Amino acid sequence: MSSSPGAGSGTPSPRTDPLTLEVVELIGTVVGRYHEEYEEAAAGHSLTGAQARVLGLLSLKPMPMRRIAQKLKCEPSNITGIVDRLEARGLVERRLDPADRRVKLAAPTAEGKVVARSLRDSLNFAREPLGRLSHEERVTLRGLLRSMLGEEA
């Protein structure tokens, strides 16, 4: 006998009700489209999606490899290889952290910043549909997404 909510009552559990399943499917579709566009934008600059994500992250703030790996949820050794390739292209450089000279930071070069901005500007998929929502709808969506992630709204 199942102890899940709704078991035996004929009511689907909140995890399998049709609305939840539809929302999960829609989120998957949005994420898939975003990744497709991101990969296309990256390819337009002869970058892999992973290289573009690292460059985009570094354009916000230089950071150590370990922190990049944490942010992108991957192994630090993978990040080292990606940064090596970006460095060989002249898009990223390694520099000492002024706060702790034992730590090396990966940082975008001037050219890397230009490429990162171009990548960001070419991603219209999310921006255009979001632009069709009112300010209040975007605030609500942001709050709902933060809530789903366990963050404060």
TrEMBL record:
Residues 20-150 form the HTH marR-type domain. Keywords: DNA-binding, Transcription, Transcription regulation. It comes from Streptomyces alfalfae. This is MarR family transcriptional regulator. PANTHER family: MARR FAMILY REGULATORY PROTEIN, TRANSCRIPTIONAL REGULATOR, MARR FAMILY. GO terms for biological process: response to stress. Coiled coil: none annotated. One of its GO terms (molecular function) is DNA binding.
